[in-house]
Amino acid sequence: MRFTDLALPEPLLRALADVGYESPSPIQAATIPPLLAGRDVLGQAQTGTGKTAAFALPALANIDPAQKTPQVLVLAPTRELAIQVAEAFQKYAHHLPGFQVLPIYGGQSYYPQLQALKRGVQVVVGTPGRVIDHLERGSLDLSQLRCLVLDEADEMLRMGFIDDVEAVLKKTPETRQVALFSATMPHQIKRIAQTYLKDPVEVSIKAKTSTAANIRQRYWSVSGVHKLDALTRILEAEPFDAMIVFARTKLGTEELADKLAARGIAAAAINGDVQQAQREKTIQNLKDGRIDVLVATDVAARGLDVERISHVLNYDIPYDTESYVHRIGRTGRAGRKGEAILFVTPRERGMLRAIERATRQPIEPMELPSIETVNEQRVSKFLGRIDEALESDELALYRELVERYEREQNVPAVEIAAALAKLVQGDNPLLLTAPARPERKPFERPGHGKGFEPRGRPFDREPRDDHRATRSAAARPPRRDDRGTAPPAATGNAGEMLFDDAPAPHHEQRERPARGPREADVGMETFRIEVGHRHGVQPGNIVGAIANEADLESRYIGRIDIRDEYSLVDLPEGMPRELMEHLKRVYVAGQPLKIQRAGPGDAEGGRGRPGGRPGGHRAGGPGGPRRGGPHGAGPRKPFKPRSPR
Q1: Is the separation of the CB atoms in 501 and 634 below 8 Å?
Q2: Quick one: which of 147, 352, 436, 635 has the fewest CB in 10 Å?
Q3: Neighbouring C-beta atoms of residue 63, cutoff 10 Å
Q4: Helix residue ranges per DSSP H, 464-576
Q5: Are 176 and 205 in contact (CB under 8 A)?
Q6: CA 305 to chain centre
Q7: Compositionally biased, Gly residues: which spans (predicted)?
Q8: Whole-model pTM?
């Protein structure tokens, strides 16, 4: 079955194609049709089986984007899950104009949530306690609610939220649709299902997560070294016969295969767009040894059984545990030994843990092959090529030419041999060069033992020889508002959605003097992107797009200044050209970024919007950490809740 068989609207199918999804997981195939038909669903499935898309896609199919009141409410046990689900809705609704989703949870200021609810949203994802607070305030209107989703209901029961869940259920219209998902079905969850669900379709998905014991599983924490460089090191230093490298999207397979081929690695790509005849030819080339690396999507590699495949490498982590099991099952077949390697970014640690829990097998950390190891392998291969050439019967002519050059130019034969070796090697250096600063082992923090290490400087540049660049944000004087007083400190946690695009409270709304020329912070450059207030963009949209597409932590994204027609954003100096070209084609709020370095005219004068804060929004660069999400990031506004939970 493919997603095109599920009667989903065309905008959702386009969004699925954008992220490379081709076939639904078992729970998606079982629950999407009844939810599209308006039936209640009682689903039993483990975390990591793809259930977020199982309820998000039919919910989005049934909403009216023109209606600005909440039509879908998702209750989640933790704020981390609420943020994750909200981001999934945003991703699947990419081609739905006017769509807005809002995560609400405790520990975040009420003010941005209230402002977003006033502006209007179609989907609310929240923790039970904060949802109850908004219902009691009257700020959350559920009168037009069409669908209520209870995600990880047994976890909400374990955390003591079950009374709040029932209180929310009682405040929803009788006509609403209910989807309840739970990994287990304790008595209280069954009672809620019997009380509040009407003739539900019951779906139970047992995760088939057994992995072969003869497959060694390892992961590398993406840290400091670009993934492509890390993959190249592994391919050069890890003994393997043939390897499948899994990428998440069709475009990703093509780009990665091209980059590997440019580095002298025999690689090819297969994905859902490759014609069957070409696919069969590529697989035959893999079997015959004409290519050694196959870059593939999940669907394209299903059922692939090639005896040569000794390694599977997950370049992009899969979205669910079932996909991971299917991927690594391409090696270790028929009792043979196999190797599985997984690249994990810091934000993907949760999925790593979910895979370990589901498969009931630990995945051990691995260290990248060192530069010295890679160079030893390169030298060994180079000397091997000389051995092969010396065995040839066609050396007589070349020997005469070398001897002639030696006599006529009075150059020792060893120098001639060195020059010929350089000629053969071409522009590609034979040896990797060590970085200016020593590499740390990817799983060691000084003084903290083993564990994930945050990435180093963006773009893996040498440190600036400038003492100002190392000055911490805390050491900088606080910015001050027009009254000369320091603004309240923002103490938001990672992943927190903060807004500052909303109008300021009445007492703050007064004309501010126009800003002078805008200068980037130390170590940063100002870039112009062609999306602004007129397109409905929020700071979090910009942060999320750049962080995800550039694989750049949000702490490296500085000030964001949204103007009417365009925006200015501070990014680290030294942006690679290929990354700039990629970001130009990234879409935010329906507009391509077309990113370029800002000119003097872009950065001078003018405010983005009346009531906006001088200096722009800060995502996570100098001046204090900020995180973006579906709705944005910015300073906290003081707001005193009436009944904090």
Answers
A1: yes
A2: 436
A3: 18
A4: 539-549
A5: no
A6: 30
A7: 608-632
A8: 0.42
Q: How far apart are CA 372 and CA 485, in angstroms?
A: 55
Q: Which amino acid is at 628?
A: G
Residues 129 and 68 occupy one common structural domain: yes
* Helices of type H across 556-620: 577-584, 600-603
Number of structural domains (the chain) is: 4
Cα 225 to Cα 203: distance, rounded to the nearest angstrom: 43
Question: What domain range includes position 591?
Answer: 494-618
Would you state the structure tokens that stand for residue 310, as one six-digit string?
């000794």
Closest CA to 544 of 35, 103, 109, 214: 103
Contact 324/314 with Cβ under 8 angstroms? yes
Calpha distance 250→350 (Å, rounded): 25
How far apart (Å, rounded) are the C-alpha atoms in residues 225 and 278? 34
pLDDT in tens, 65-108: 889 999 999 999 887 788 889 999 999 999 999 999 999 988 77
Residues 287 and 308 sit within 8 Å (Cβ to Cβ): yes
* CATH of residue 329: 3.40.50.300
Burial (Cβ within 10 Å: 0-12, 13-18, ≥19) of residue 337: exposed
The position carrying tokens 């991927």 is 327
Tens-digit pLDDT profile for residues 462-515: 333 333 333 333 333 333 333 333 333 333 333 333 333 333 333 333 333 444
Radius of gyration (Cα) for the chain, nearest Å? 28
> Is residue 169 helix, strand or coil?
helix
Q: What strands lie across the sheet with 177-182, from one edge to the other? A: 101-104, 123-126, 72-75, 147-150, 177-182, 41-44, 201-204
DSSP state for residue 148 in the 8-state scheme: E
